[in-house]
Amino acid sequence: MTDTNIQPDYLGHRQRLRERFLSGGGKDMADYELLELLLTIAIPRRDVKPIAKALIRKFGSFARVINADRDDLFEVSGVKESAYTVFRIINAALERVTWQNLHENELPVLLTTDALVDYCRATMAFSDVEELHIIYLNSKLHVMKQELIQKGTINMVSVHPREVVKAALANKSSSIIMVHNHPSGDVTPSQADIQVTKQIRDACATIGIRLVDHIIISPSDAYSFNSHGIFA
Could you write out the DSSP letters of every residue in the chain? Predict the structure, then answer.
C-alpha cells in the first residue's frame, strides 16, 4: 500500500536550494544549481537536476543556456516551452536592467564604458550571426536610444556608410557609437571592419555627426576602436 502523504524527495531538495539562494544570493551556487532553481519555476512536478546538468553539458555555461536557441534547447529531454519562456524572461530582464543603467546614467557614455559593454553583451553577444547596432547620443554624449541596423552571417555584416548617416539624422543624433558582435568569440577587428569604420566616421563627419567609438563584443571580451587609437 502506498502512502500518498509521502512527498517526493525532490521537493525537500528544492526547498533547500531556495534557502541557499536566499541566504547567499546564489554566489556559492554552481551554474547547474542556479539553472535548476530556474527550472523549478518552469517544471513544478519533476526532479529537474538531471535536466539542469544536461543543459550545462550541452551548452557549457549558465549564460549560454539562457541565451540558447529554442530548437537547440528542445533537444535536451525535459525542456519544453515553459522552460524556454523562463529563459527568455531572464534575458529580457537582463537587457532592460543594463539598458536602464546605461540610459539613466548622468555621466557621458565615454565615462561609463562598463555599463555600455554590459548592455551590448546582454543584447547581442550570444547571437549566432553578426549584428550591427547603433547607439544614438545627444550633444552631451548621453545615450538616447539604440537600434539594430543590420543582420549578417556568422562572420560578416555589411552596411553602407550612407545607411548609418541616414539613421543618425533620422534620430536627431549628434554622436553615435557602432557596436557589432563576433560569434567566433575573437573580438580582433578584421581589415574590413577597420576600413568600413573609417569610411563611416568620415561620412558622418561631413554632416557634423561624430562617430565616438566602434565596439566589437563577444560573450567574454570587448574591443574598442577608440581605446586602441584607430580613430587617431
Answer: ---TTPPPHHHHHHHHHHHHHHHHTTTT--HHHHHHHHHHHH-TTS--HHHHHHHHHHHSSHHHHHTS-HHHHTTSTT--HHHHHHHHHHHHHHHHHHHHHHHT--S-GGG-HHHHHHHHHHHHTT-SS-EEEEEEE-TT--EEEEEEEEE--SS-----HHHHHHHHHHTT-SEEEEEEE-TTS--PPPHHHHHHHHHHHHHHHTTT-EEEEEEEE-SS-EEETTTTTTT-
Which CATH fold would you assign to the domain 108-224?
A: Cytidine Deaminase; domain 2 (3.40.140)
Every domain of the chain and the residues it spans: 9-94, 108-224
CATH class of 9-94: mainly alpha
CA 94 – CA 48 distance, rounded (Å): 24
Is the CB of residue 98 less than 8 Å from the CB of residue 119?
Answer: yes
* pLDDT (tens digit per residue) in 80-138: 999 999 999 999 999 999 999 999 988 888 888 899 999 999 999 999 999 999 999 99
pTM of the full predicted structure?
0.85
